[in-house]
Amino acid sequence: MFRVDIITLFPQIFAGYLTQSLLAKAIDKGLVEIHVHDLRDWSVDEKHHKVDDRPYGGGPGMLICVEPVIRCVEAVQSLDSRPALVILLTPQGERLEQRGVESLAQTGRLIVLCGRYEGFDQRVIDILKPHELSIGDYVLNGGEVAAMVLVDSTIRMIPGVLGDECSSWDDSFSRGNRLLEFPQYTRPPEYRGHRVPDVLVSGDHKKIAQWRQEQSLLKTELRRKDLLIPPADPNT
Ligand code: ADE
């Protein structure tokens, strides 16, 4: 069973997401387990459960303190005998892409740290040496939405999670695929003068495959020319 532990200051954010749709089904099927932990439970401040403080040297905002994070990660790590890959979500991280998602799905266990405020005390990173990940070049109010993106993209790569094993097979970006998806149509055959392309109702499967390939290429050339350049080989 694939296990994810999410550490956050706002556990309620995940309540709806965990009980809906594909993820709820994957949990029901016993393929995935997700545990959400409130960082405040590991605060060293017994009275107010404070976990943040002002940065040394001055500057705006607050930082998440090192002590509660280390205490929490160590406690969570010991809840399962399998060692987890620790991920810290931050705009400073390596960009999460499909290749990375596929390798996360192979790990079996993740601990995901969601940041808030101005980020973490640097010693969190020095001690835990987490894999720092970003979901894109924009700044979110915290790592919670990024954690959902990470979990959502990762669990669909776990065998059995998608109803039909093939449905991630043709996805754009999957297994090195670098073409955007071709347009798809369903009934009715005509709506407000917009007709389904004749080729798709022709029954000629060879022609349909060729048309789809052309459409994918065309869309990729128009929208994402960068995808048509092969990625650099990490070994060279
Ligand atoms: N936290 C804030 N912004 C983020 C981003 N772009 N990716 C991951 N975590 C974040």
What does the model show?
The structure is a single chain. The radius of gyration is 22 Å and the shape is elongated. The protein is of the alpha/beta class. The longest helix has 19 residues, at 205-223. Helices cover 30% and strands 18% of the residues. The chain has helices at 15-18, 21-28, 66-77, 98-105, 122-128, 144-155, 205-223, and strands at 2-8, 32-38, 52-53, 63-64, 85-95, 109-114, 131-134, 190-191, 194-195. It is built from 7 helices and 9 strands; from the N terminus they run E-H-H-E-E-E-H-E-H-E-H-E-H-E-E-H. The strands form 3 sheets. A 5-stranded parallel β-sheet has the order 2-1-6-5-7, with helices on both faces. The protein folds into 2 domains: 2-155, Alpha/beta knot; 178-228, tRNA(m1g37)methyltransferase, domain 2 (Trp Operon Repressor, Chain A). Helix 3 (66-77) packs parallel to helix 5 and helix 4 crosses helix 6 (144-155). Bound molecules: adenine. Adenine binds next to strand 5.
Q: Can you say what the CATH homologous superfamily of the largest domain is? A: SPOUT methyltransferase, trefoil knot domain
What hetero molecules are in the model?
A: adenine
Number of domains: 2
Order of helices and strands: EHHEEEHEHEHEHEEH
Shape category: elongated
Helix/strand structural class: alpha/beta
Q: In angstroms, what is the radius of gyration?
A: 22 Å
State the major sheet.
5 strands, parallel
Q: Give the class-level CATH name of the largest domain.
A: Alpha Beta
**Percentage of residues in helical conformation:** 25-40%
Features:
Alpha/beta knot; 236 residues; two-stranded antiparallel ribbon; 2 domains; Trp Operon Repressor, Chain A; binds adenine; 18% strand; alpha/beta
